[in-house]
Amino acid sequence: MGQTQEHHSWLYNQLFTNWKKFEIIYVSVLVALQIIVYLIVPDSIIGMISGVAGTLCLVYGMKGRKITFIFGIVQCLAMTYIAWISHAYGSFAMDIFYVISQPIGWYMWGHDEATKRFSPKVRRLIFLGAFVAWAIGWWVLAMVHGQLPYFDSINFVVSFIAQLLYIMKYQENWSLWIIVNGANIIYWGILAVQTMMGTNHIGSLGASLSQIALQFALLFNSLYATKVWASGEADNEGGAGKDGDK
């Protein structure tokens, strides 16, 4: 098997090698969920593109593969547009950062680089800092009249910290993403309900539902990625790194 894999291209190895049956099933279900949501409420093709690309981005990130950043560019550009039309200013600011961080992450993720982990003391300081930053972000977003600033602040500041840890391959990034994904499910859920009730005319129902489906997918992926990165399975790009160079 090893000899056969050497003849595959980098792209093939990144996309198709070393997948567990469970992973294939769950990524298929998550992508299908995005398409189903779009078929139910087909008013936001951008939302569907964001959802599919975002799902693939995080799944390949879970595998520790650099191709995650290609899907990430697509997802982040789509999310930036959705956040802007929804007046989710915290999300909009973060999406701009996400777009910039994709090529940086591509550069920083070496083919043979192992994931890293902080000491318990440093980990506690990071989580404390994230909480303080969230409180400050809440205040700032409330001052500019952003929607649901207490939730949007999580997407603004906690996501920023999580993304930095992600592109530096620290395992703790997934713990923060779990918080972000959970908050985003509530955030977009509230916006969807407000849209259906006619109390919110900003954005679209389809875009909100696509984001809810995406955040559920990302939450599941973050939980699973915590296990994968801790076990070392994401090292060497999930087994695709060395062969991709040959």
Short structural summary:
The chain has 246 residues and is mainly alpha-helical. It has helices at residues 2-5, 10-16, 21-40, 45-62, 68-85, 89-108, 120-143, 149-167, 173-197, 205-231, 235-238, 241-244.
Q: What keyword list fits this structure?
A:
NMN_transpt_PnuC; cell membrane; nicotinamide riboside transmembrane transporter activity; membrane; 246 residues; transport
What this model shows, in words?
This protein has 246 residues and is mainly α. The chain has one domain (2-244). 77% of the residues lie in helices and 0% in strands. It has helices spanning 2-5, 10-16, 21-40, 45-62, 68-85, 89-108, 120-143, 149-167, 173-197, 205-231, 235-238, 241-244. Helix 4 (45-62) runs parallel beside helix 10 and helix 9 (173-197) packs antiparallel against helix 10 (205-231).
Question: Secondary-structure blueprint of this entry?
Answer:
Elements: H1 2-5, H2 10-16, H3 21-40, H4 45-62, H5 68-85, H6 89-108, H7 120-143, H8 149-167, H9 173-197, H10 205-231, H11 235-238, H12 241-244
The share of residues in helices is over 70%
Q: Helical segment tally? A: 12
Order of helices and strands: HHHHHHHHHHHH
What is the overall pLDDT average?
83
Output the structural class.
Answer: mainly alpha
Supply Rg.
Answer: 18 Å
Unreliable residue runs: 1-5
Total E-strand runs? 0
Overall geometry comes to globular
Major sheet: none
Tell me the distance between the termini.
15 Å
Strand percentage: under 5%
Tally of separate domains:
1
